[in-house]
Recover the amino acids of this structure.
């Protein structure tokens, strides 16, 4: 479906954006915070790719691979969200200290 293709592209572009910002910053807590955001985007990319497999192909193999991608992408996104939530206050505190 076309909506999943759009979501796949957007999540991949967000992943590249956050990874670029990750490599350009020098602050350690901001690096970990951006790593969490890029993990969310990467997890969504893999999950949307797996979800797209359910609608594109109608074979058992594609459904199994799609389910594996969906579960793995969900776990990566969940881990990225936990990392994002943990390092957000630390990144804010770090930014305030450097002002």
């Amino acid at each position: 479906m076309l909506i999943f293709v759009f979501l796949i592209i957007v999540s991949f572009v967000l992943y590249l954006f956050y990874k670029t910002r990750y490599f350009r910053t020098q602050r350690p807590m901001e690096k970990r915070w951006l790593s969490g955001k890029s993990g969310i985007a990467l997890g969504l990319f893999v999950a949307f790719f797996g979800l797209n497999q359910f609608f594109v192909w109608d074979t058992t193999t594609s459904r199994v691979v799609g389910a594996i991608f969906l579960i793995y992408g969900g776990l990566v996104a969940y881990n990225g969200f936990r990392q994002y939530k943990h390092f957000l206050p630390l990144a804010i505190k770090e930014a305030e200290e450097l002002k």
Q: What stands out?
A: The longest helix spans residues 60-98. The chain has a mean pLDDT of 95.
